[in-house]
């Protein structure tokens, strides 16, 4: 049996097993199984040993271990290096390599590389577009890197704990850091990378009511959260007449890249796999 894992803490709500087991069945990888495992920081070393000994073939890493796993790895791919964030592990030539597929997954989402759309929702190219990012957690560096990849050169970042925003500024010196609770006057894109909204009715205390539809119908509010499908952040934006998108396609796109690293198969993001996330 070829075993794959997603590790994190908490992990109960991870939908990665649903997606990967669906693809494993679809592509007839009958001897493969993907499970979730709740781990503590002290367990990371053992996980790597399991990969080294082929007890586990591939691993997805999620909150809060995307950075903490790095010291245990032999190599990083270029995106993991740039973002200091790893979400996928695989052994190649006896080396445990850490990959970052969040970055490519978000890049695909920005460019509209997902089913049923030839119309990228982002205002491409992103040069001179103002992009306001809320949060500086494990995935935010991947978001910044992907936006830069599409030409973004006006990124403003705000996080409740300012030191974490300043840490990201060390990786991406061109970004501007704003105190939590403040916001730029008007931006073209506002992205929530915080965990606020995961619990129903939970809401960021930042007022965007002046982003009203008469002038700002092209402004995009993007939330990385996809469950609930529409956070209060997105609902308010929709009611104001702004464009909205949740993190579902990014989640599927990052999973697609991880699956490809492990199996060499490029899985299709079909209607059925999309429905699994509803
Ligand atoms: P981690 O910080 O361990 O990487 P994460 O889930 O990737 O975890 O990130 C959580 C993000 O949501 C952080 O930006 C966090 O802000 P802090 O750095 O200040 O903790 C943000 N966040 C969580 N709860 C929040 C709240 N109630 N208000 C504002 N931001 C919040």
Explain this structure.
The chain has ten helices and twelve strands. The chain is an alpha/beta fold. The model has no long low-confidence stretch (mean pLDDT 95). Helix 4 (102-110) packs across helix 5 and helix 4 packs across helix 9. Helix 5 (140-149) links the parallel strand 7 (131-134) and strand 8 (155-158). It binds 2'-monophosphoadenosine-5'-diphosphate. The site of 2'-monophosphoadenosine-5'-diphosphate has 14 residues, from loops. Residues 63-64, 135-139, 159-161, 164, 194-196 line the site of 2'-monophosphoadenosine-5'-diphosphate.
Annotate the secondary structure layout.
Layout lengths: L1 E7 L7 H11 L5 E7 L5 H9 L5 E4 L13 E2 L1 H6 L4 E5 L2 E5 L2 H9 L20 E4 L5 H10 L5 E4 L3 H10 L4 E3 L10 E4 L20 H4 L3 E4 L8 H9 L2 E3 L2 H16 L7 H6 L2
Helix pairs in contact: 4-5, 4-9
The structure holds 2'-monophosphoadenosine-5'-diphosphate.
The site of 2'-monophosphoadenosine-5'-diphosphate has 14 residues, from loops.
């Amino acid at each position: 049996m070829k075993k794959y894992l997603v590790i994190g803490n908490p992990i109960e709500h991870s939908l990665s097993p649903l997606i990967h087991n669906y693809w494993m069945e679809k592509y007839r990888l009958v001897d493969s199984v993907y499970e979730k495992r709740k781990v503590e920081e002290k367990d990371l070393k053992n996980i790597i040993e399991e990969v080294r000994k082929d007890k586990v073939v591939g691993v997805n890493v999620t909150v809060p271990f995307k950075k903490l796993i790095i010291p245990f790895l032999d190599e990083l791919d270029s995106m993991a290096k740039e973002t200091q964030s790893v979400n996928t592990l695989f052994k190649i030539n006896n080396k445990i390599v850490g990959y970052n597929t969040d970055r490519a997954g978000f890049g695909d989402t920005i460019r509209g590389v997902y089913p049923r759309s030839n119309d990228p929702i982002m205002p491409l190219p992103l040069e001179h577009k103002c992009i306001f990012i809320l949060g500086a957690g494990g995935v935010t560096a991947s978001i910044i890197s992907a936006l830069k990849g599409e030409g973004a050169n006006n990124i403003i970042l705000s996080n409740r704990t300012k030191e974490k925003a300043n840490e990201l500024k060390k990786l991406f010196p061109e970004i501007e850091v704003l105190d939590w609770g403040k916001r730029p006057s008007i931006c073209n894109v506002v992205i929530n990378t915080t965990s606020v909204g995961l619990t129903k009715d939970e809401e960021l205390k930042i007022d965007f009511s002046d982003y009203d539809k008469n002038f700002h119908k092209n402004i995009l509010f993007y939330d990385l959260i996809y469950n609930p499908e529409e956070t209060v952040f997105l609902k308010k934006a929709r009611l104001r007449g702004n464009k909205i998108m949740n993190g579902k396609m990014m989640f599927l796109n990052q999973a697609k890249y991880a699956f490809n690293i492990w199996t060499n198969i490029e899985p299709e993001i079909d209607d059925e796999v999309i429905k699994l996330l509803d």
